[in-house]
Amino acid sequence: MKRKSPKKDNDDNGSYFAAAGRTRKKKRKKIMIIVIPIIIAVAAGVTAAALLYKPTPVQAIDGVECHGSESLDYHHHAHLSVFVNGQEQHVPAGIGILPAPYSCLYWLHTHADDGIIHIEAPQAMTFTLGQFIDIWKQTKSDSQSFFSTISGMPVKVYVAERNNGQPQEFNGNPRDIELKSQEQIVLAYGSSQPATIPSYDFKGLT
Q1: Can you give the pLDDT at residue 11?
Q2: For labelling, which of 24, 48, 57, 110 has a CA lying 20 to 30 Å from the CA of 127?
């Protein structure tokens, strides 16, 4: 007796798997229809938030403002040396530069501990050493011990108004010294003076 062919069962199985495949495709299509708009909406929201984000506003110090980027329309450099009882002290890096959430730079600031004061403003303006000192005090909390140390100490001031010039003694209030291009300022606190009053070479900086 001849055995019957299982062709019909194979056809049924093929139809089942084909139908299952179509069902899976439909499910994936439905998921994509739901997911893709969500992804687009989230991306749009993130983009809008980035465009609308504004850093926390910062109050000006002595009329000197803090902006989110460097203002290079008026861009000059001065140099400050500080001595306490004859020993040179580093002028800290990061004076006038605030991290997040403020993320801004005051028009008077330092990038390194080399004593260079960056004068960067949206237009020509007059700035003084007193303004820079106040910005230093208010933006570098780790310098409070330094200012406590020099409080009440006598101070001698030396100024040179040209590159690599020899600073000469200044008679007057040091806070009133105008910060100018390639100006060198030396503050010598205490009863002992430095052995030599240094000059500074700006090496092309103006």
Answers
A1: 57
A2: 57
**Residue 127 near residue 62, CB atoms below 8 Å:** no
Cβ-Cβ contacts under 8 Å for 141 (sequence gap 6 or more): none
Candidates 198, 165, 196; CA nearest to 180 is: 165
Q: For the chain (length 206 residues), average pLDDT per consecutive 10?
A: 54 60 70 76 58 69 96 95 97 97 96 98 97 97 94 97 95 97 98 95 95
Q: CA-CA distance, 46 to 183, in Å (whole number)? A: 47
171, 162 contact by CB (below 8 A): no
Within 10 angstroms of residue 117's Cβ, the number of other Cβ atoms is 23
Q: What is the DSSP pairing of strand 184-189 with strand 74-84?
A: parallel
DSSP 83-133: EETTEEEPPPTTTTEE-TTT-EEESEE-SSSS-EEEEEESS----BHHHHH
173 Cβ partners below 8 Å, 6+ apart?
Answer: 130
Say which DSSP state 45 is in.
H
In the chain, the DSSP E strands lie at: 66-67, 74-84, 87-89, 97-98, 104-106, 108-109, 116-121, 155-160, 168-170, 184-189
